[in-house]
Amino acid sequence: MSEILKAAGTSLERVVKINIFTSDFSKMAEFNSVFNDYFPQKPPRTSVQVTKLPLDVSFEVDIVAIV
């Protein structure tokens, strides 16, 4: 995430909204432990369980940041 945001001219510190899509809500605790390392000052976020994600991944994260 950091590198993608950097390439767009912004950073993790400028994230204002996160949407998380998961096909396996039982993995949210594990996701949250990693998420908290990146976002100690948690931006607003929405978590949504879906039936399936492309390429059979467990998570898709959509980030909105100020550029």
UniProtKB/TrEMBL annotation:
One of its GO terms (molecular function) is deaminase activity. InterPro entries: RutC-like_sf, YjgF/YER057c/UK114. It comes from the Eukaryota. SUPFAM superfamilies: YjgF-like. GO terms for cellular component: cytosol. Transmembrane segments: none annotated. PANTHER family: 2-IMINOBUTANOATE/2-IMINOPROPANOATE DEAMINASE RIDA, PROTEIN HMF1-RELATED. Belongs to the RutC family. This is YjgF-like protein.
